[in-house]
Amino acid sequence: MxxxxxxxxVHLCACxxxxxxxxxxxxxxxxxxxxxxxxxxxxxxRLLMGLLALEWGRGGIQELAEITGxxxxxICRGREEIQQSIRLARVGRIRRPxxxxxxxxxxxxxx
Length: 111
Hints:
Layout: H1 16-20, H2 25-39, H3 42-56, H4 60-68, H5 72-84, H6 104-107
Helix pairs in contact: 3-5
């Protein structure tokens, strides 16, 4: 049974700059970041935000969390993965085996 892939919607930035000046260069950059995030899987999204957090320096995690709507923990985890540069060459599965919901067929009792 094939699953339908749920498409994420583009997050609207809630930062002060975007609310007061929605057509500014900063707001345009924030919209671009959010459009890119929609196209990525969760691991790539985490790594990209970790890289940006490293580039932006102090306060970058909080600012990125506000811009993207991602959790601060997710961005911190991405930053740590970038710094360690371990598991970056790993391809294939995104999540470890066994994660997620159990199949409906298994949970259903037969009488």
